[in-house]
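Example (one chain per record):
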Amino acid sequence: MISSQIIKNAVYNLCVEANTVLSEDVFGKILNAYNSEQNLDAKQALQLILQNAQMAYAKKMPLCQDTGQVLVFVKIGEQCQVENLESSINKAVSKAYEENFYRKSVVKNALFNRTNTKTNTPCVIYTELTEGSELELELLIKGAGSENVSAISMLSPTSTEAEITDFVVSVVQQAGAKGCPPYFVGVGIGGTMEYAGILSKKALLLDENIDEQHKIFAEKIKNAINGLNIGAAGLGGTSTALDVKILTDFTHIACMPVAVTINCHSLRHAKCVIGADGEEKGKSKKEKASEMHKTIQLFDFSTFQPINYTQINSSDIEQLKSLKKGQKVLLSDEIYTARDMAHKRLIELIEKGEKLPFDLKDKIIFYAGPCPCAEDCVVGSIGPTTSSRMDKFAPILYENGILATIGKGERSKEVEKTAKQLGGLYFTVIGGISCYLSEKFIGKELVAFEDLGTEAVYRFEVKDLPLRLEF
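Predicted structure:
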């Protein structure tokens, strides 16, 4: 029997590996995109993404502040006996997220009780029986930004490959820059609605497409996606999809379920196989680390040098308002963090006419929920969340004096119109470079809503935070 402790140790290590180390394959695909990219802005974004991966690996920090929902795909051999599988997995994830200062993002109930469990559990666990006596555990760390732009459609059973391609491309086009492109795209076709979704997740984890037929179709979809010119961080260029994987399966004669799972450029996953004797098979942790170290050294560059950036302080209102669309800046001085729940509370206070926890006049709000950190550091990995989720709150905040907001992805026409009428600004920052960005934060103070944890309002002092003005 494989003991509970062996399972806990394995899942704990997988959590750390997935959150801090890009696989050799993923790093290589980003590196190839960087080498072939001709769009200067997109190339700079890819350079920062690669540098972020190097820093996360070296510092053992999360690649992204959204350390995600943990999905665990379990294959249990029919002759394999395991002890307390589900509870062991959840206990290991809880311990890993607490001890390594990973952000805990799971709430108790999607609709009726959105209280944070403070453990990042329960996990989403999928199990299947296989032949043999081994236990396979594979983790996928799924951030909300890319998950929220994933989609499923029940197409006609007579749908052609061209029609399926059109649907997949439309999903990516709708996602735009919201999910941190360039993307890894998993496509699941078959079964029922929920089964197609699982297939699309499993597709993301494939080393390669399962046969020539799937490979050719995936390449067609990839080429169509890359024709969208979304590019790294939405800045244009040739790399919108880094890879596309497809899984197909049986279905009802009247069905054609097609699910598209979008994953950001940091495809965070890790796998191990445990034999009946309790020993892990395959490469050791030390061997995998050595291989990744060699891969990372393939990208040997001097520290990122900002090109065509303007240094500016958040207190220099006149200079900020003189900036032009598309202009890049290195922002210093004071900003505030606030996201979904903090916005909800701020709007409630405004509507009740009650005093706000800080004066909104000419302030800059960064849509971010950082990872926690040890007492001797300012902040853990920190980066932008999807700005469009704050669109329903933004007009009211601009009307009440907010000067600028910072996030990722596109905004609604209403937000853009309101901001422009009031002289408000919207900046974007490259998503998925959270380890790199953490070094730009040099001071902090808790301002409000401490009970919200990562979603509390903080005042941060920043130095040379790289941004781009969208409007």
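Caption: The chain has a mean pLDDT of 95.
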